[in-house]
Design a protein that fits this description.
about 400 residues, 2 domains, 6-stranded mixed barrel
Length: about 400
């Protein structure tokens, strides 16, 4: 099709054409970045924790007053919890992922290293910690019974015998090497800690160190005396076991407060609540922008059809078919959309740079630009189809009656 008549018409309607181009450009810039942000949020919410998520319940407790024999009390609590019907494993830990707690340590691979190699999240627990969490060892072994120590003994110079690290942490510290048997130096003591095992995945308790360091976690064989009880059971018995566990803890020791309780899936849901809300909000913004853009294209195309009725009739009288009239308006819209999309891609890149500078967001992948362009091209063709079809249906006799 010869596009010179189309370009000539657009030059005569510069203001209306410019408005559509600007509208499409803004939509392209915003939609590309919004889709990227939605995908980022979805990817974040779908991160693997490494835990048996649908089998774990947790109870956060706090004591009243002081307990001179906290180690023995913790062991009594765990023995009572493990005796509850339906309980597979139970442990006391300093925290579970996403429960508003954070124990961290700086680790190095050399003694007296001034700049630590990594900052990692630290999980403490007793002999059933690995089984309660449902962690999968990819190398090495679990802690041995003689490697465990009570929390009360950590301050008197007792060495920590072993550590289990995540695969992501091991690859950062010892790239291309087997981490099992290597030594770590951390802020827990002056003596090195031997790595005895590597787990596939164990997410940090929070995102303080950013998504790149989400898998920098390690487990230490230290029995805490306060914190959270984590209990593993079958998914269908979680509510039953949770209720029984709370009652058991209250019966065993009445001088404590149950601060919080729930399933681990509830913990995950609460942690990602803002991410889910943001994803829905951005999705709604995308839909609203697409609707507004489509309505703008429909309105302009309808106006132009009305303004060009005689021109259309003349073309029909000179032999133009309905298909040619239809393609004329579709081509016209495609040209406007293309100009808007090119400007929108530049705007999308600029907006992403602004977000990177002020909100520490990652760079917009180039993949989102053609996806946004294709979406707007299709939207433009769908939106213009109705007015273009009405233009193609204009009878030559009616259109030329006043000529």
């Amino acid at each position: 099709m010869d596009i010179r008549p189309i370009l000539s018409t657009l030059r005569r309607h510069k203001t209306a054409s410019a408005l559509i181009v600007v509208e499409i450009a803004l939509s392209c810039a915003i939609v590309c970045n919004a889709l990227f942000l939605i995908d980022t949020r979805m990817e974040r919410m779908n991160r693997a924790t490494g835990l048996a998520e649908d089998e774990i319940v947790r109870i956060n407790v706090a004591g009243i007053g002081t307990n001179d024999n906290a180690d023995a009390a913790a062991k009594t609590d765990l023995a009572a919890l493990r005796a509850i019907p339906g309980v597979k494993y139970a442990t006391m830990t300093n925290h579970v992922p996403f429960d508003n707690s954070s124990w961290n340590s700086s680790v190095s691979i050399k003694p007296d290293q001034q700049i630590p190699s990594l900052n990692v999240g630290v999980y403490l627990g007793d002999e059933q910690l690995v089984e309660t969490f449902g962690l999968k060892l990819s190398a090495g072994r679990d802690f041995l019974p003689e490697e465990y120590t009570d929390m009360s003994g950590i301050g008197d110079g007792t060495a920590i015998a072993a550590a289990i690290v995540t695969r992501g942490m091991a690859e950062k510290l010892f790239p291309g090497e087997n981490a099992v048997g290597k030594l770590l130096h951390d802020s827990w003591g002056s003596k090195p800690i031997k790595i005895v095992g590597v787990v596939d995945t164990l997410i940090r308790p929070n995102d303080n160190e950013g998504p790149v360091n989400a898998q920098n976690s390690m487990l230490l064989p230290i029995r805490p005396t306060s914190g959270r009880f984590a209990i593993r059971t079958s998914p269908e018995r979680r509510e039953e076991v949770l209720k029984a566990a709370v009652a058991t803890l209250e019966r065993v020791n009445r001088s404590r407060i149950i601060m919080d309780q729930g399933t681990f899936t509830d913990v995950i849901g609460e942690y990602y609540q803002q991410d889910k809300a943001m994803a829905w909000l951005l999705g709604a913004v995308c839909v609203a922008l697409m609707i507004v853009t489509a309505l703008g294209i429909v309105g302009l195309a309808s106006f132009w059809v009305q303004q060009r009725t005689k021109q259309i009739g003349v073309r029909r009288a000179l032999g133009a078919t309905r298909g040619q009239i239809l393609r004329y308006f579709q081509t016209e819209n495609f040209l406007l959309a293309t100009i808007g999309i090119v400007l929108g891609m530049l705007g999308a890149f600029g907006l992403n740079q602004l977000l990177m500078t002020h909100y520490e967001l990652p760079r917009l992948p180039a993949l989102y630009l053609p996806v946004g362009a294709l979406a707007l091209w299709l939207l433009g063709q769908v939106a213009v189809y109705g007015p273009a079809k009405r233009a193609a249906a204009v009878p030559p006799a009616v259109a030329t009656r006043s000529v």
